[in-house]
Structure formats: C-alpha cells, structure tokens
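Hi there, hope your week has been kind to you so far. Thanks so much in advance, here it is.
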Amino acid sequence: MLDTHLWRSILFVPATNDRFVQSALRRPADVLQIDLEDSVAPGDKAMGRSRVRAIAHKFAAAGYDVTVRINRPWRMALSDIEQSVGADVAALTLPKVPDASYVRFIGEILDEVEAEKNLSIGHTKLIAMVEDAEGLENMAEIANAGPRVCGLIVGAEDLAVNMRMAVTDDSLYIPNAMAVASCRRAGILPIGFVGSVADFKDEDEFRKKIRRARGLGFDAAFCIHPRQVEIVNEEFSPKASDVGTAKELIREFEAQKAQGKAACTFNGRMVDLPVVLQARQLIERHEAFQQRQARY
C-alpha cells in the first residue's frame, strides 16, 4: 500500500536520457520522478512523454514508487497526463500551481483518464509546486485542495524569478516555513529545504541544508543528482541513538507521572507532555521505516 508519508528522497530522472534512467535504478531513492518539464528540451517533449509508460514500468518493477513531473501549459499538461497516468505511476508533480482551483481541474481530468484506463478513481496523487507570488498567496488552499494532494514543495528558482529576489536563505526561509505549516494543516508531505535544488556540488553544505530542513519540519526533498539521495535518506530518517534517547525520556516521564508529577528532568532538560509527544513521533516514524524495510 502506498504511503507517501514515508517518502524521503525523490530523484529526478529526465525522460529522454537513457543513461540517467539506468543510473537511477542503482540508487536507493524512495521515489524516482520522471521529468517531462525543465530537463526536457522543447523539441523533445513529445518524445519524452512517449517514453514515460515504459520507464515507469521499469522503475515500478524494480520496487520504486514512481512520479511524473508534467508541464504547466494546458495543452502540454493534457498530453502529459494522457501518457503518464497508469498503474505504475503513483503521482503527478504539478509545476507552477497558482491556486486550488487548478489542482481541482487537474483532478477532474484524472477522474476521466483513470476511468478510461480501468484504474480506481483517486489512484493518481498530486504533488503541488508553488513557484510564484500567486501560488504563495494561495499555498494553504493548494495544500488542502482535495484528497489527491499528497505533497507540496516551494520551487526556489522559479519563485525567485517571479518575486525578483535572490536565491538565498533569507529570501526562501519564509516561503518554506509557510509550506511546512500548510502541509501540516492539510496532513500532507512537506517536501523541500531552504535553498536551491540546483546546488549539488558541495555535499557537506547540502547535508547541512537537509539537516536544517528536518529541524524546520520537512520530511522529504527533491534530488537532482544521485549523490544527494543517500544524504537525504540519512538525514530524514530517525537516528538509532535519537530513538534510544527518546525511549529513555518516555520511560522517565512515565515513572515520574506515576508519582503524580506532570513534568520531570531528563538529561538536564525539563520534560513535559509536548516534549514527550515529540519523542513518540520520532519513535513512530522509526518503527514505520522499520516495518517498510521488512516488507521489502
């Protein structure tokens, strides 16, 4: 059963590049995202979408969850949807989403395409990309646009162009904090980090960005280079040492609670119910990953 809340790494794979398709199959990404948008030249769009079905089948057969990033202009989007929707594709990623109504229009199209392909209605989930000022204004409504929406991300580069701002931590912090809040309110996956996905050469710096993203409440990230995958997986997974500490904290809290106390001290820190709830969330996430690993 698909559980998008356990996605961590979502690796872009250009639909027109056989070498990248084969390379992706050697990576431990949770999701392989077939790209029909920015990594495919305008003259190659038709060829790219014609390859989606075969690539998706290859990825799914290898045990990956598969998504497809489609194009934004309606005529291209419709053709992309027709070619991409299928049993092997878990979700479509929608670039430059302006508002919730756009997501719902896409959902109506998906209803028809899924019915024609004998898929259950709602099979194809949606990841929304917020990449301009309009989308930023409507982010909370986009995240809550319907049951198909499973995740949301801020597209740093396009947002910077539209907002006429630099791609810096200062300029991207507020949009990303808003994204986490919108996702948590809607119960969907917060994807991203503060920074540009295009910065992949400095692996230490990238690790710092992902570590910070986890602290801000993100659970997953897009990867444009295979080297990023293992970093993302590691940083978005609970550390065994942290899980052990969380269990000790809960045991101490429960022991003090049994003596009628509402709070206790653990490792020099005051512990009350919100701290305990965070510890339980960490343990639950760790156990969910363990269960998923056991299934494979």
